[in-house]
Amino acid sequence: MTDHLQYMRRALRVAERGRGKVSPNPLVGAVVVRDDRIVGEGAHLHVGGPHAEVNAFAKAGEHSHGADLYVTLEPCSFHGRTPPCAEAVLAAGIKRVYCAMQDPDERVAGKSFAKLKAAGLEVEVGLCKTEAHRLNAAYIKHRTQGLPLVLLKLAQTLDGRIAAQGGDARWITGEEARRHVHRWRSWVDAVIVGAGTVLADDPLLTVRHVKGRDPRPVVIDGRLRTSPEARIYRRPGAILVTSEQNPTDRCQAYAHKGAEVWTFPAEDGRIDLHLPLARAAQEGMTTVLIEGGGTLAAAALTDQVVDRVQFYLAPRLMGTGVEAIGDLGVERAAQAIGLSAVRTRRLGPDLLYTAEVQYSCSPDS
User: Fold this and answer.
1) How far apart are CA 152 and CA 277, in angstroms?
2) Which residues contact 293 (CB under 8 A, 6 or more apart)?
3) Residue 313: beta bridge partners?
4) d(Cα 258, Cα 238) in Å, to the nearest integer?
């Protein structure tokens, strides 16, 4: 008996090979099965390169004829950087297609399924749908809401401190946790910090400890508290987000260092974070990581832009010190922001706590 779940779960694992390499495209894995045996598999591995289905067919060769295809996302149906994958499925001689989910991109959105069915192929949709949605949560949000998936990362003591009273934060967590953070940096499109973090640490926000691409560094600094001489503004792709009320000549000082300056309306230096995030999505960013500090974390949660949290909890107590999250305006316990789908993982002596953010009401209510 064919184990359909086994093959789709394999396709989901194969899709992970493209993480950090294909944005703004989705993560896709494909597995070709004939006579209850995998004869080919592939993933989309880099932007502009062959898609998962094409790579799988190349491995399967003539064994694709009459085979079943398990794919994590609806094959594309339009000419982009590569030809439509729906046509490749037909050319390969596939008999049945098992697909985890429909592509939310309006250029596809069921068109490939209709084309394959019209050609006589059997098409079943929905196998491992929940897992497929989680795999491509960033792509789905980008295509349906015009916003990137936002992750909030904090490395803190058990009593919620991200730095000592004097500002020292090196190192709260251990090496394994820091390596995990850098792996995530290599997977996202941008890392966002506030002015306070730049003033305290003068960070570069590059990827270290692991191999991978550097994300674009973004600084939220509505009042231009940071210096144009900060190292981060010399990084390729650096972005300064600030108030449009600031003098042009002051903004130009950052641009002269190489930073791209984005200006938005602000109230007392405070920018609605939906605005720069929408701009980031327009520029092809599908996942961003907010790394601090406490004021920015509170602003992001207050603006309800955070989708997931990644808290690295160190077995330490600091007492007084810099708070991980600033004032959220919570006056009653019932107003607290909820977390769901909670997962925990040991990273050496530290604990990684991940969860989905659940807001009780809209920010305008």
Assistant:
1) 14
2) 162, 163, 193, 194, 196, 197, 200, 322
3) 156, 351
4) 7
Q: What is the pLDDT of residues 262-307, one digit of tens each?
A: 999 999 889 999 999 999 999 999 999 999 789 999 999 999 999 9
The answer to whether the beta carbons of residues 119 and 93 sit under 8 Å apart is no
Integer Cα distance of 269 and 244 in angstroms: 9
- Residues marked as catalytic: 53
Gap between the Cα atoms of 240 and 224, Å rounded: 9
DSSP string, 258-294: T-EEEEE--BTTB--THHHHHHHHHTT--EEEEEE-H
41 phi, psi to nearest 5 deg: -150, 155
Q: Read off the tokens for 23.
A: 């944005």
Q: Are strands 338-347 and 350-358 parallel, antiparallel or unpaired?
A: antiparallel
Residue range 36-55, pLDDT digits in tens: 999 999 999 998 899 999 99
Side chain identity, residue 295: T
Q: Is 95 helix (H, G, I), strand (E, B) or coil?
A: coil
With beta carbons less than 8 A apart as the criterion, state whether 151 and 289 touch: yes
pLDDT per residue as tens digits for the range 93-119: 999 999 999 999 888 888 899 898 999
Question: What is the rounded CA–CA span in Å between residue 235 and residue 218?
Answer: 10
Distance of alpha carbon 59 from alpha carbon 53, whole angstroms: 10
Please name which of 239, 233, 182, 194 lies closest in space to residue 216, comparing C-alpha atoms.
Answer: 239
Q: How many other β-carbons are positioned within 10 Å of the β-carbon of residue 1?
A: 4
Length of the chain: 365
The segments of the chain whose pLDDT lies below 70 read 1, 78-82, 169, 361-365
